[in-house]
Design a protein that fits this description.
This protein has about 425 residues and is an alpha/beta fold. Helix content is about 45%, strand content about 15%. Helix 13 crosses helix 15 (about 380-395).
Length: about 425
């Protein structure tokens, strides 16, 4: 493993920062990264994101800029847009949003007025801050109403969602979230949106790569608008896209620019274009299927070791675990696993009696390990490390955590990470 990678200009100009970048490269190479919103981008995406495109300012859209010298920038943006439309089968795509939250804010600007009612999954149930949750600007500027999951199954009760939508008549309904381990029924949400007169927005930030690879049903036939980040399972740079039917194209574009932001980050647009090109290849479909296969295998192994999984398992890349039966708080477990070389995040679980900054659960996922080529045959070992790590956390056994870290590093050395090995 030839790490850290060479950064001669950075090392010469700012050795302190270069050392920190090198340390992060080594950390990502040696640890088992199980945060479901993280991944490894390819060297090609890294290179595209660090080009001279950083030097160019490009307010407006391709062919309609407020700055000259856009001959190449326009082609790059059109390439990203065309690839997004082809990969996801959509009529319109905007690749300019800086990240997922600004993309969702653009949706509000396009379809609602301050004070309007909007509807989304409650944050503690697995939703996202920008789906109208109270501490977010979307919950302060709009009247947010939230649905959740059943306490007995961990699944969305669509009868309750329909009842809430018909009673509240929201302008926008969001489906999707940050801690949903099951397949999203876009058709059911679309039927409720039609009946209640709402615009349906599918936030597929977590599952975009699975949809692109055919491992999760697509919202395209059902949703008016699709919002997504371009990292996570899509394996692109930190950016976002909004996709829609053609009838909503002008409203979406106007909301992004000039509504919310100025010039796009052209280097990110280039990275998105590369990631979408990679997502169109047959190997990416195999990757998406492997992400799901790994997650299901890991869930089965964890269940066999007595872990309580929200909804009883997973259909996608994500597993949400309630550690209450293990008598170890989520934050304690997450920090101990980090010392063991296993990177997760502590997370609330539905109906969690504990506070959000000290919750009962942890959230894990398989995108990163799958990108390294690690397969279902390794999921028993991963589950065993998690089991031993949680037990060590409860017992305060640092020696056990150190032993796990050595075992993790050995497996990581055998499966170098994309973009880091060279």
């Amino acid at each position: 493993m030839t790490l850290p990678l060479p950064h001669p200009a950075l090392a010469a100009a700012d050795p302190e920062l270069a050392a920190l970048v090198g340390a992060e490269e080594l950390l990502q190479a040696e640890t088992l990264r199980l945060i479901p919103s993280e991944n490894y981008v390819s060297r090609a995406v890294l290179e595209a994101s660090g080009t001279v495109l950083q030097n160019k300012y490009s307010e407006g859209y391709a062919g309609r800029r407020y700055y000259e010298g856009q001959q190449n920038i326009d082609q790059i943006e059109r390439l990203a847009v065309d690839r997004a439309k082809a990969v996801f089968g959509v009529e319109h795509a905007n690749v300019q949003p800086y990240s997922g939250s600004p993309a969702n804010l653009a949706v509000y600007l396009a379809f609602a007025e301050p004070g309007d009612t909007v509807m989304g999954m409650a944050l503690p149930m697995g939703g996202h801050l920008t789906h109208g949750w109270g501490v977010s600007a979307t919950g302060k500027w709009f009247r947010g109403v939230q649905y959740g999951v059943r306490q007995d199954t961990g699944l969305i009760d669509f009868d309750q969602v329909r009842e809430l939508a018909l009673a509240e008549r929201p302008k926008i309904i969001f489906c999707g979230g940050t801690a949903l381990p099951r397949t999203i029924d876009f058709a059911a949400f679309a039927e409720i949106a039609r009946e209640s007169g709402a615009v349906l927005v599918a936030d597929i930030a977590h599952i975009a790569g699975l949809i692109a690879g055919g491992a999760h049903p697509s919202p395209v036939p059902h949703a008016d608008v699709i919002s997504t980040t371009t990292h996570k399972t899509l394996r692109g740079p930190r950016g976002a896209m909004l996709m829609s039917r053609e009838e909503h194209a002008k409203a979406i574009d106007k909301a992004v620019f000039p509504g919310l932001q100025g010039g796009p980050h052209n280097q990110t647009t280039a990275g998105i274009a590369v990631a979408l090109h990679e997502a169109a290849q047959p190997a990416f479909a195999e990757y998406a299927r492997s992400v799901v296969a790994n997650a299901r295998a890991l869930a089965d192994e964890l269940l066999a070791r007595g872990f309580d999984l929200v909804s009883g398992g997973t259909d996608n890349h994500l597993i949400l675990m309630d550690l209450t039966p293990k008598e170890v708080p989520g934050k304690v477990a997450a920090k101990a696993l980090d010392r063991a070389g296993i990177v997760v995040n502590y997370n609330t679980v539905p109906y969690d009696p504990r506070k959000p900054f000290d919750p009962s659960g942890i959230r894990i996922g398989t995108p990163s390990l799958t990108s390294r080529g690690i397969g279902t045959e390794h999921m028993a070992a991963v589950a065993d490390w998690i089991d031993r790590g949680v037990r060590a956390a409860g017992a305060g056994d640092e020696q056990a955590l150190t032993a796990i870290r050595a075992e993790v590093a050995e497996l990581m050395a055998a499966y170098p990470a994309p973009g880091l090995s060279g």
